[in-house]
Specification:
The chain is α/β, with parallel strands linked by helices and 371 residues long. The chain has 13 helices and 13 strands. The chain folds into 2 domains: 131 residues, Enolase-like, domain 1 (2-Layer Sandwich); 221 residues, Enolase-like C-terminal domain (TIM Barrel), CATH 3.20.20. The mean pLDDT is 98. It binds N-succinyl methionine (SMG) and magnesium ion.
Length: 371
């Protein structure tokens, strides 16, 4: 079997509500789906989790498409008939960085390969459960209204989510956390600052310990390893890293140095599901819990993330929410929360496909790339 071509599909899908973080507001998701097709007619899918602008990281939709077209495609030529997903990952190492672009193309190839073998991604990665616990990430209301925040959180609690993550930034932390904690005294609650604080905010963040939080995610800039060590020492609430962790080495270093004690794993941030699994393995060896992050994926990326979240070290609920948290209409059959959980897909590969009419209606641009 040989991969013959890739098609990049670019879709615009409005979010059900704006998603505001410390680095900006997303209203319409600029979705990039990569489809790999083999000479025996199997299509596999990967989602490129870039945003439309370089806010979360330096990657964004336009540059990911450029890197895929002009740099990754040529690099993948020599492995187009490989039956070794690790060789595919190695071939992409000639390109520095750009993990989201790499993850999209390599997941599409892995999906073809697994579909041909009739094996699900969950089985391949080592899933240990059939359902995963789900949390939800709650943005900063555009109005900065605590009443609006409580209404949104209340809706999610009623739907059954097993933990709530609040986006925070200086000026939007103590009061919203206090209000949510007062309204739901026992719900597992955590924060995500997306790098918005400074080392000098350590005692301020430590004052949030009173709210019995599961963790603080990425309080400081991604390169500030020592700052995160200081933050971990200052706060009783565990520190979890997201943007800082790009590889097995950075995960291991962060855990060994005490910069964090928990890791948010996003395949798009680390370049591949293989690396995501390796970070899970090293964290497990070090006794550190991990959980599955999210990037507002459609059902394509969500299916793969749910499979990853079924590995045994994923002991905290992930940002693996139901389709309706993001989209009125998903590209795949919707993921529907059942008792605070999502089922791990069991079909071959990622186990889901785009619905052709939905894909057609939402596509704003596509291109074919022969390998
Ligand atoms: O997929 O539910 C989701 C989004 C989860 O908060 C989320 N992601 O830093 O963890 C994070 C953010 C990154 C995306 S912000 C647009
Ligand atoms: Mg985060």
């Amino acid at each position: 079997m040989r991969i013959e071509r890739f098609r990049i599909h670019r879709l615009n899908i409005p979010l059900v509500r704006p998603f505001r973080t410390s680095f900006g507001t997303e209203r319409v998701r600029d979705v990039i789906l990569v489809e790999a097709t083999s000479d025996n007619g199997i299509s596999g899918w990967g989602e490129c989790v870039t945003m439309s602008w370089p806010g979360y990281s330096y990657e964004y939709g336009d540059n990911a498409i450029d890197v895929m077209t002009h740099h990754l495609l040529p690099a993948l030529r020599e492995v187009s008939d490989s039956d070794d997903p690790f060789a595919v990952r190695a071939a992409m190492e000639v390109v520095a960085g750009h993990p989201m672009a790499k993850n999209a193309m390599s997941t599409a190839m892995l999906d073809v390969w697994l579909r041909e073998r009739g094996e699900s991604l969950g089985e391949y990665l080592g899933a240990a459960r059939t359902h995963v616990d789900c949390g939800v990430s709650v943005g900063i209301p555009v109005t900065e209204s605590i009443g609006e925040l409580l209404a949104e959180v209340g809706g999610y609690v009623d739907e059954g989510y097993r933990r709530i993550k609040l986006k925070i930034q200086p000026g939007w932390d103590i009061e919203p956390i206090r209000a949510v904690r007062q309204a739901w005294p026992t719900i597992p609650l955590q924060t995500d600052a997306n790098q918005a604080y400074e080392r000098s905010d350590a005692s301020h963040l430590a004052s949030l310990d009173q709210f019995d939080l599961l963790l603080h995610e990425q309080p400081l800039e991604q390169d500030d390893w020592y700052g995160h060590v200081l933050m971990s020492q200052a706060c009783q609430t565990p520190i979890c890293l997201d943007e800082s962790i790009h590889s097995v080495m950075s995960a291991d270093s962060a855990l060994q140095f005490g910069a964090c004690s928990i890791i948010n794993i996003k395949p798009g941030r680390v370049g591949s599901y293989l690396t995501a699994k390796e970070i899970h393995d090293v964290s497990r060896d070090r006794g550190a819990p991990v959980w599955a992050g999210g990037m507002l994926e459609t059902g394509i990326g969500r299916a793969a993330n749910v499979a990853l979240a079924a590995l045994p070290g994923f002991t905290l609920p992930g940002d693996t929410s139901g389709s309706n948290r993001y989209y009125e209409v998903d590209v795949t059959e919707p993921f529907v929360l059942q008792d605070g959980q999502l089922p791990v897909p069991t079909g071959p590969g990622i186990g889901v496909d785009p619905i052709p009419e939905v894909l057609r209606d939402m596509t704003v641009w596509s291109t074919d790339l022969s390998i």
